[in-house]
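Inputs:
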Amino acid sequence: MDLAELFNAIKKSFCGLISYKARPGNVLEIITAFTTLNSKFVSVFLKYENGRFIVTDGGWIQSNYYENPIHEESEEIIKRIVMSFQLSYDIKITQDKTGLIYYYKVCNEASQVASCVFDLANFIVGTINAHCLHFKDEREERERDTFRKDANGFLKTNYGDNVKLSQALDDLKSIRFNAIVNKRSQLYLITYITGSTPYYFDNDLRKTIVNFELTERSKYNNIIQEKISIINNRSEGYQPDRVGSMMDLLREKSTRPPINWTDKERLLELV
Amino acid sequence: MNRRNRDVKDQYPFYQELVKGKKTVLTSPIFLGVKPTNPYWLLGDSEVFHQTSDESITVLVERSTRENKYGIKLRCKALTEQPYFRFDSDGPAHRNDDPAIPLDEQSVTTPHFNAYNSAGLPIAYKTDKLKQEAEAEAIVNDINFGLAHFCSETNMTLVDGNFPVVAEREPELGLEEVEELFKGVNFE
């Protein structure tokens, strides 16, 4: 096997991927050999204007022509990643009168154009791929959502209009409890503790401890009858031997020992 | 990133029936109005009646007012949330990343159709018409030619056997031809 010959075939294949389309106004779309995770070939646009070569994404990133998924909850991290790529490849930004953002590079010499195209194409691949990736733990999200729905359903069935879900106290608006039951002008604060891994479970546990502690500063403290947590003892993150001291702290900050989900009817005796 | 559409994979004969089965478009002209989620796009749709399936099918037509780009899609939510068949007049080339296809043939530039294979993976292809430069150019530049070609590819007509057409509610919106790309954009 002549590997050098094979190299030539590979090179020919790679180069065979690159093509172009002539666009209005003496603009050339270069369809590069770079692809994104969602199987789009990256295009860059080349324009010669006032003695300079401009290489731009053509507004395709912001127009979502690459059809990347939109993960609003990961917006901040995606922004940081895109910013890093922008700095690394020295990419500039401008916008047209409609507000459409163009990413671009400029050079004065024809010999520099290939390098600009290479950088911009790399930038586009990185940017689109950052949008394609899942930064959230999907399994955790799914399991958390399922438990929340189950627990919400249980409370709604038993307390009807007396229960408000995902509710904050008026004077502690930044702290939401999974549920607040209001019975005869007495408040019962309820939090859920779950997690598909010990890491997520511990996070919930810590959050509950802090939130219960903070309610002592609320003007409603004297009408808070109970502070109770429901523990998803069927979740994989529930490992009681690991979190002994934190459980002790939780008991200290709650008015009742936590209630296991498999024993949830006990809650009805307390609220 | 898993791009496999499991709904299509699991119901592939149904998918094929939805693409190739005889269908009737119930409205023509399909009026395009400003897309609620994007002011620079126009959107219109029509119900589609399928000869052998009672499921609700919609044909959607979208056109950019910023550029000479449009898309046509078929959607059947009983099959899958995503549109199950599409035409893109412009935009990036798609990669059919199948190792059985030589690398330099894996790129399918626009205009092209997007469908799914039996594994539920998206595949793009060009019809013979789209492979001919003059024909492709006519389709790219005239949304009604594109709609007719889309209907012929997906076995759809109006009740009278003709192809539907699109019309715009607000004809003042973006009908001027794009003479120069990036005109007036300040690349400092």
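The helical segments of chain B are 6-10, 12-20, 128-131, 133-141, 143-153. Flag for discussion at group meeting.
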